Amino acid sequence: MDATAYVELQVSDSLHGDIFKSDPFTISAWINPNFEGTTWEHIWRSLPGASGHNTFFLNKDQGLLSWRGQVGGWTVLCQSDGGIVEKDKWMHVAVTGDGDKFKIYADGENVAETDFQETRGENVTYRIGGTGGETFAGLMDDYAVFTRDLDEDEIGLIMEGVETFLPVEPKGKLATQWAALKR
After folding, report:
1. What pTM does this model have?
2. Using CB atoms within 10 A of its CB, is residue 123 exposed (0-12), middle (13-18) or buried (19+)?
3. Which residues of the chain have pLDDT under 50?
4. Where are the beta strands (DSSP E) in 48-175?
5. pLDDT in the model for residue 111
6. Which among 8, 135, 118 has a CA at the least distance from the CA of 70?
7. Cα–Cα dist 167/160, whole Å
8. CA separation for the pair 116, 27 (Å, rounded)
9. CA 104 to CA 26: how far, in whole Å?
10. What would the pLDDT profile of 4-21 be if each residue is shown by its tens digit?
């Protein structure tokens, strides 16, 4: 994968621009970094902002995961110890926020936990992958963003595949969208 490639998402009713300000959330993905990009590689980034608003990084030199955001300035909100992320090895990563704590998970294990801090918000775009001076060199799969914080058991389920966690047959408005996608 091109280290500067990314997927861009616009804000919506459920993934709104202030979601990381105080709402519960989970960002989850399988990653397989090849460490050929920049030192700080983007798994997730919220924009606008010269320093980003909320960014889920991996640091290839230290092998750590870091959740950062704007709290009066660019702030490390939650960060794991080094030696967790390895080159050319698939691993599941997740960051959650519940309004009380931020947590980072690696392969289903809680590897970092800190007190929640409200971030600036006002996001207009979200990006998965590398952009803005940092890259993501490697592969990603089963990427998911939830508007609630998943607990450790749910993180374990999602590691088996997003489809094992999501309902097989959605209901209501989602069922109509689901049926259209299956055609």
Report:
1. 0.85
2. buried
3. 183
4. 54-59, 64-70, 74-79, 91-97, 101-106, 109-115, 125-129, 138-146
5. 98
6. 118
7. 14
8. 15
9. 10
10. 777 888 888 888 888 888
